[in-house]
Every structure is written in structure tokens, then in C-alpha cells.
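Example S7 (C-alpha cells).
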């Protein structure tokens, strides 16, 4: 049987991420594992020229808001031990780095299930994590985007998506 002591759940606070959080909590209870709840704040793009400060939040404000949202996430299962981690940088690379540094045995994350041009333009954090993760990855799809696809998929470490 696979030994799972630490589960990493990266979140962007979306519906697929919330669904993945519930799965991660259930697995944490089942395996008596600790749960690392991670949010990565992507660096802001450079401001357009001419620069206008009106309506733009600072990185510090964005980070503070993200941390408050992260800490507000709680499991209905009181026995889940949750650690909160906030990072800044390219999301896929930061998630993989944190998984390596913490010795995560499993990553459980949501995916928006974008395909075609949207996937090409926006990219896929989940795809980058699946490709480079040092451990198994379970992706949970947005069921509104993938009507025929399974609710979640397991990927072996270093698998190609």
C-alpha cells in the first residue's frame, strides 16, 4: 500500500480547487497525513504605459488578501492537520519546489480543463505540475468543463500529460 504522510493541495480558490480540497481532506483523514494548503501569488505583469495607479492593488495587498483566504479554508473533518503556505512566483514551478522541499507524497489539485486556444494562451499550471512533480498527482476537473471526463485523474510522478 502506498504510504502517504504529507499531501500538498495547491489552491487558486476556484470551484475545481475547492473540490480538490475536499478530496485532499478525505485522503488526509484516511492516511492520517498532514495537509499542506498552498497558494502561489503570481508576480504581477508590468504596468501598461502610460502607467496609471488608479484601481491597482499592491503586491503586499494582494498577498495579504490571499493569505486571509488561505487561512479561511477549513476542513469539515476536524482531525485534518492543515499547514498554510503562501509563495510568490510562477505557480507550477513554486508548487513543484514546495512539494520537493516538504517531502510531499501526493499533490491533489484542481484543474480548469481548458483546451485548445485557451490552453495554449493561458497555459496549464496543472500540466506543469504533473510534468515536473516529484510525487504522484491527482487532478480534479471542473465538471462544468469536462462532461465526459472522470472527476479526477491520478498521474505518476514525472508523467507526461
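Recovered sequence:
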Amino acid at each position: 500500500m502506498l504510504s502517504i504522510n504529507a499531501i500538498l493541495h495547491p489552491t487558486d480558490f476556484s470551484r475545481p480547487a475547492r473540490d480538490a480540497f475536499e478530496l485532499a481532506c478525505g485522503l488526509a483523514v484516511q492516511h492520517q497525513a498532514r495537509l499542506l494548503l498552498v497558494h502561489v501569488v503570481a508576480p504581477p505583469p508590468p504596468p501598461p504605459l502610460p502607467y496609471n495607479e488608479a484601481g491597482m492593488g499592491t503586491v503586499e495587498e494582494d498577498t495579504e488578501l490571499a493569505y486571509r483566504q488561505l487561512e479561511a479554508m477549513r476542513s469539515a473533518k476536524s482531525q485534518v492537520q492543515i499547514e498554510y503556505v503562501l509563495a510568490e512566483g510562477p505557480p507550477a514551478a513554486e508548487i513543484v519546489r514546495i512539494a520537493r522541499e516538504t517531502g510531499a507524497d501526493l499533490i491533489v489539485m484542481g484543474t480548469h480543463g481548458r483546451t485548445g486556444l485557451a490552453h495554449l494562451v493561458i497555459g496549464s499550471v496543472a500540466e506543469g505540475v504533473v510534468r515536473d512533480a516529484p510525487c504522484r498527482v491527482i487532478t480534479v476537473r471542473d465538471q462544468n468543463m469536462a462532461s465526459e471526463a472522470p472527476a479526477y485523474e491520478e498521474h505518476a510522478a514525472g508523467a507526461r500529460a
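Notes on this example. Strands lie at 6-10, 34-41, 81-88, 106-111, 136-141, 152-155.
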